[in-house]
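Honest question from a wet-lab person: if I give you the sequences of every part of a complex, can you actually get the arrangement of the whole thing, not just the pieces? Trying it with mine:
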Amino acid sequence: MANMKKIAELAGVSLGTVSHVLNGTAKVREPLRKRVLDAVQVTGYQPSQLARGLRRDKTNILAMIIPDILNPFFPGVVRGAEDVAFTKGYRLVLCNTDNDHSKEIMHLNALRTYLPSGLIVIPSDFSELTVQAESYRRTGAAVVCIDRLPRNWDGDSVTINNAEGAYEAASYLIGLGHRRLAAITGPLHLTNSQDRLKGFKRALKQAGIESIPGYLQETTFDRAGGYAKTKILLKMVPRPTAILACNDMIALGALLAIREAGLHCPDDISLIGFDGLDLTEVTSPQLSSVYQSPYQLGAAAAELALDRVAQEEGPARHIVLKTELRIRDSVAPPAKAKRAAVKAPTRKAGYVLA
Ligand code: RIB
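Yes, you can. This is the full assembly:
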């Protein structure tokens, strides 16, 4: 099998010149570069990233661990990270945890043996990333935690202004005249769920509205959770007139429960989701939501990780991205309003539901 020595012989150059041409580590005069590339072609040489990685104790892999690629929020995050990795000469390797922390530990242990340059993690529920990250850093790998942070996280991070986003949504509903507001949160041991709840409560407090414990429901970030908790809310007396669902999947479950109960959104109950997924534009009614950019989240994380690879030292950096409240048809003043009172411009759909 052809190797770099063979190429050097054939091209009549040193091994170092071959290495510089193939790895782009130094500028090589054009005639020499061409001789090396011709020799590569003649011999059919395929560089082994593994061998190269072992020599450098680092591969050009950017590892990424997420809860579940089937959740429509996460593909955008992965794509953003991959695009940045690609333009900088890295390849992205992806693992799903299904929110299971023991699976996350297995991935963390296995991925480390591939000697990645960096690791981006959306932690699972009850993640032990804080402890595990140290062993990555010891190998010189950058670790960036995104979207939600595990307990005591002190490394680099990219998140969004969760509290502000929820505060704005709840304030909007209060502005429409709602006083009986419910919230369906994600798992409350996750920092993003905690912050969204804080923002919701702050809006109520500021308006002098007492938050009724039964109106606060905690669930998993999925449709089944939203459906089950909305059924509970709809049986309460008095029934809430508005719900803030702390992600769009919860909101989709809520819409279904509202419809099944023979009620109408927004005439009987207003609903705002969180994430602003494209698919919320094809629901009926179109769902209002607190938009965040999954692509930007992933891209910023990859930038941060690869910056850290280039320059290891320095204090932890925390990037907080902005959210944007997007009002569509699922909100109206309480008491049988027929149409949404205020409409904001909508984005173009990126894809439609099959
Ligand atoms: O649907 C995925 C949700 O989980 C998003 O709201 C995201 O912020 C998250 O942690």
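Two things worth pointing out. The first helix runs from residue 4 to 11. Confidence is low (pLDDT under 50) at residues 337-354.
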